[in-house]
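Researcher: Final request for today, and then I'll write up notes for the group meeting. The sequence and the SMILES for zinc ion follow.
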Amino acid sequence: MPIHPVRSSTDQVFMSFVRELARSPQVLHILTGLRDGHQPDPHGWCNHPSHTHRWEPHPCSSLRLAELVEDDRYRRQQGRS
Ligand SMILES: [Zn+2]
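Model: Predicted protein-zinc ion complex:
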């Protein structure tokens, strides 16, 4: 057994978070919440109020997270994960 546990990469930690969201019984509610109100403005920025103090190109990080969760959920339903 190693003295120091093997650290997971940031990507591995993030994708395990995505999988946990995808497997949540509330996944549809979570996806709705992640996507609600995130629309592009005429200049291609997301106009959701949560981005008021920083610019987020559309699709923003919230929408990209929702896409990853939806993809993982779909793969799991198809028996591919
Ligand atoms: Zn947004």
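Model: The mean pLDDT is 91. The two ends are 28 Å apart (CA to CA).
Researcher: Thanks, that's everything.
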